[in-house]
Amino acid sequence: MSSKTYDFSVIVAIYNGVSTVRECLASIVSQENVSVQLIVIDGASTDGTIEVLSEFSNDISHFVSEKDSGIYDAWNKGLKVIDSEWVIFLGCDDYFWRSNVLAEVQPLLYSSSKEIPIIYGSVCVVNSRKDYLYSIGAPWSILKQTFYKMMCLPHPATFHRSTLFKDVGLFDSSFKIAGDYDFLLRALGSKDALYIGGEPIVGMRHGGMSSSPRNALKGLSEIYMARYKNGLKDFSLPLFLFKIRIYLRYFLGLLFSQKFCNIAYDFGRKLRGLPPLWTKV
After folding, report:
1. Is this model's pTM higher than 0.85 or not?
2. What three-state secondary structure class fits 8?
3. What is the DSSP annotation of 154-170?
4. Which domain range does residue 200 map to?
5. Fewer CB within 10 Å, N- or C-terminus of the chain?
6. What is the pLDDT of residues 45-63, one digit of tens each?
7. 124: domain CATH number?
8. 223 SS3 class
């Protein structure tokens, strides 16, 4: 078992998340039969988030509230104080799927080979009413080839060995959307990740930073940057097709109503064998 103080470190980056942060933190502090170092990094919220955070003052191990340059800057601040073997990052729109999820995965994590730096499970994406939309996550044997073409690991359900941040460095805060992809490319290199099957690890509300066409284009640009930075300069068909879909969404949004666009988006998903999404958000 770990020689560290805690079994897990959970770093939560928040900025103006008053509507969802309570559920996020409650899902962390309610974890059973494990010790959790809860690290909260707030970007100087002004919407009542700080007042909600005060309700969890006895459960928060480390708290910072100050302006930052984005989520990766916030995560790096949290990494300076981690005191566990395994680290997971949640946004205020994320929450652990059940109260015993960390206890369930703990034996696998702590018995895994030191050669495996990343262990991940699946994420259940929900809408604002917490209706199921779709799941993200599959065995590494399936995702491995795609991973080096574009980001496909469900990062909110990803456990990182704490030694990684000494071995390959922190997050590159010049990224605003794809810094997790850049880090995972560095962390994995030629190594393998390990998938935790079964029920989801984390629930994630749809509608994050990269969901709008404009932000999706920014994220796409950063994915290209991350690949180039890590020596991956070959053509990526998945990225190319993703780029086409984003531009179609962008131009449809300029020409038609949101309702029409949502129907069109879901028709495109149906053609690709995917369940409806945009008409359910």
Report:
1. yes
2. strand
3. -GGGEEEETTHHHHT-S
4. 6-208
5. N
6. 999 999 999 999 999 999 9
7. 3.90.550.10
8. helix
